[in-house]
Amino acid sequence: MASNPPKLKTVITANERLQNLKNTFEKKYGESPLFYAYAPGRVNLTGEHIDYCGYSVLPMAIEPNILAAVSVNSSGTITLANTNPQYKDFTVSCSEDIAIDRENPKWHYYFLCGVKGIQEKFGIAPLAGMSCVVDGTIPPSSGLSSSSALVCCAGLVTMEANQKSLSKVALAEICAKCERYIGTEGGGMDQSISFLAERGTAKLIEFQPLRATDVKLPDGAVFVISNCCVEMNKAASSHFNIRVVECRIATKMLAQARGLDSSRLLKLAQVQTELKATLEEMVALVDEVLHPEPYSREEICKALGITSEQFSTELLSANTQHVTHFKLYQRAKHVYGEAARVLRFKNVCDSEPAESIQLLGDLMNQSHASCRDLYECSCPELDQLVNICLKSGAVGSRLTGAGWGGCAVSMVPDEKVESFLQAVREAYYLPDPRRAAMEKQSLFVSKPGGGAAVLLEE
After folding, report:
1. Rounded Cα gap, residues 126 and 162, in angstroms
2. CA 387, 194, 202, 278 torsion: positive or negative?
3. What percent of the chain lies above the pLDDT cut of 90?
4. Which residues are catalytic, by number?
5. How far apart are CA 411 and CA 279, in angstroms?
6. What is the pTM of this model?
7. What pLDDT sits at residue 1?
8. What is the pLDDT of residues 122-140, one digit of tens each?
9. How far is the C-alpha of 89 from the C-alpha of 83, rounded, in Å?
10. What's the chain's Rg over C-alpha atoms?
C-alpha cells in the first residue's frame, strides 16, 4: 500500500458529479478548479465506542464521500461554499488565527478543523489563499462519519494547496486530533479509515501506533446500511463526551482497585496492558470491582482520593461539567466485551469456517444488544429498525457510529438482498412520509470503498 494519498488523473466529463461540481465552481468563482479531493464516509462493522478506550475497531469505507473542488490564489482568504444551499458560504483570512466555535458546530467549522490541523503541523504562515466548493453525498448526522470525512477532506485539500506532503497515517493522526477543536473527543477510527481504506476490503484499525490490516469479508453476503432518520450531532450534544468521561473514570477506578498508579492511566485498554490480563479477565474484574448502580461525584472523589475541583478539571470535559452520576460498570463491561467481539470477528474472517456468515451475524447482534443495554447509545427508532432488518432476512444487524440515531448496518445473504430491501422499505420507510422522502439515500448496499485521494483533471 502506497504510504501517501494517491493523486489520480481523471477525465472530469466522464463523471457527472465531478462535471456538475466543476460547473458550479466556475459559475461561482469565474475560474476552473486546480484540483479536486475527496474523503469517504465509513460504516463500522463492529467495535463501537472503543477506539477512544485504546481498542481496535473494524470499519470499511463506503462509496458516499465528501468531495471538494479547489483553486489556489494569492487573495489572502479561504472561501468555502457548499453545493447544498442549506450550508452557507464562509470566508476566513489566511493571516489571522482560525477560530472554531464549539458552541455552534456549523459545517464550515469542521472544514476549518482540517485547515488548522495542517497549518499547525507545518507552522504555515500565512496559508495559501483558496476557493473551494464542497459536495457531500454522506447523509449528515447519520453515524457514517460525514463530519470526520469533511475534516479529512479539508486536511488533504490544505496539504495539497500549500504544497506539503504527508503519509496517510500522519494525515489520519492529524485529522483525528484536530477534530477535537470542535469539542468531540473521538478515538481516531473515522479519520483512520477515511485515509487508510482500500477498495474491496474492510480493515482492522489498531492504535498506538496507528496501523491498518486487511480483513477479507466472506463471500455470499453484503452489508446494507439503513438510516433510522433520527439525526445525532455529536458536537452539539453531550451524550458522546459523557461516555468518554465515564470510560476515563472507570479506568481510574479499576486501576486504583488493583493497586496501579491511576493518575497516569486514561484508557481502559491501558489497565488491561498493565495487568497483562485477557479481555475475559477484564470483564470478570469489572464484575468484581464496580457496582451496577450509578456512581456519584462524591463516591468517585473519595475512591480516587481527589478533590471535586480536580474531578472537574482533570476528568470532565467542557460539555460534561453538569453531569452528577456515572454508570461506570455498564460502560466498562461494554468496552471489554466489544473489544473481544472485534477480535473474534476478524478471526472468523481470517479462518473462513463454513458457517462464517452466521457467526459474524451473531457477533453483530451481540454488539447491538451491548450498545443498547450497557452503553445505552441506541434509541427506540434504531431498535425498531434493527428488529425489522432481522425479520426481513438479515443474519446480523446493529447500530453503527456513535448511535442515539443514525444508521444500522445489516449483514444480508446475497440471495435475500432484493427481498430484504423491499421488506425494510415497506415496514420502516413507506409508512412514514418523512422517512419515505429520505428513503433513496437512507437504504443502500455498500461494498468496501477506497480511501481519500486527490484528483487532477486529465
Report:
1. 10
2. negative
3. 90
4. 190
5. 26
6. 0.93
7. 52
8. 999 999 999 999 999 998 8
9. 10
10. 22
